[in-house]
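For reproducibility, we list the full input for the NAP complex.
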Amino acid sequence: MNYRKLGRTGLKVSPLCLGTMQWGWTADEATSFAVMDAFMEAGGNFLDTADIYSRWVEGNDGGVSEEVIGRWLTDRGNRQQVIVATKARGPMGPGPNDQGLSRKHIIDACDASLRRLQTDYIDLYQTHSPDGKTPIDETLEAMDRLMQQGKVRYIGCSNYKAWQLMQALWASDRAGSARFDSLQPHYNLVNRAEFERELADVCEEYDIAVIPYSPLAGGFLTGKYSREGQTDSARADGIKSRYFNEAGWKALDAVRAVATETDSTPLAVSLAWLLEQPSVTAPIIGANSPEQLAGSLAALSVNLSEEQMAALDAASAWK
Ligand SMILES: NC(=O)c1ccc[n+]([C@@H]2O[C@H](COP(=O)([O-])OP(=O)(O)OC[C@H]3O[C@@H](n4cnc5c(N)ncnc54)[C@H](OP(=O)(O)O)[C@@H]3O)[C@@H](O)[C@H]2O)c1
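The corresponding predicted structure, in tokenized form, follows.
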């Protein structure tokens, strides 16, 4: 794999990051281990998780994905080879301080993640989404403190609007403290405006790494959904309500046409399009099996021509 720099930092990450929201939800522990093994064997070195994964599953209080990764890191003895990214912000308990981005919650959440991950440092610690009730200076000071203590190596954020990211950069600059070196936005061929409208320019201008989540629109861009057809995915209802519309089908039709031209798959073409975006560092893929992972890894050998990129851009245009 051709490793990429994480924004302005010296850290090298694989061009695909493996998301682990599926662990303890749609992938059991044995399957999760098999997918992570296959990812590492293919040259991947970058894992994304969050303390809250997968708290929406009945009987799961959160932390399960981190626990699975912790057991895998210990079992495989490969902690030094893996770049582990996790996040805090979501509710991890019933108390008023069990969530958010206050100094208290960030410090408590980091210690809890370290325990679950069975490690003494997190490579990339991210705020999962903004917390309008906590001053950004307090959040950044707490994260800077974790870096000084050696518990965290780099910090990033997710789901920030352009003004919020600018406000955070500005606050770090003012305080002379650590700054967000990565952004995790929701960005794919059928959800472009949210990132492209303003965030893309901010990230390019300030050399902030971009690690887009849901690069396949939760599975829609694999091409397994059709106007008439059904799939047995646990995510089918959410995908139908979000992407079963004319704009979604138009983009998917163009993806299918390019897949035919390149003797590839809609999945690989969708990821290849994202990998070509100048601001993108590493899309965060999701896989429920080694076979699904192989489908995503295939994107690394797809080369799209200028005409094919233009056709995909036109079919998914939002301006
Ligand atoms: N920061 C945030 O707020 C946020 C939000 C969401 C996700 N994330 C991160 O991003 C990661 C990826 O998100 P995502 O899972 O939504 O990504 P995605 O790549 O858009 O969707 C992955 C889903 O597509 C389907 N799929 C993948 N490969 C396939 C194949 N070869 N054939 C058929 N179906 C296939 C699988 O779903 P089925 O098999 O169930 O259909 C899989 O769970 C997460 O694990 C998490 O780390 C972050």
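Residues 19-22, 26, 48, 128, 158-159, 184, 213-219, 222, 224, 233-235, 267, 284-288, 292, 295-296 surround NAP (CB under 6 Å). The radius of gyration is 19 Å. Both points were considered when choosing residues for closer inspection.
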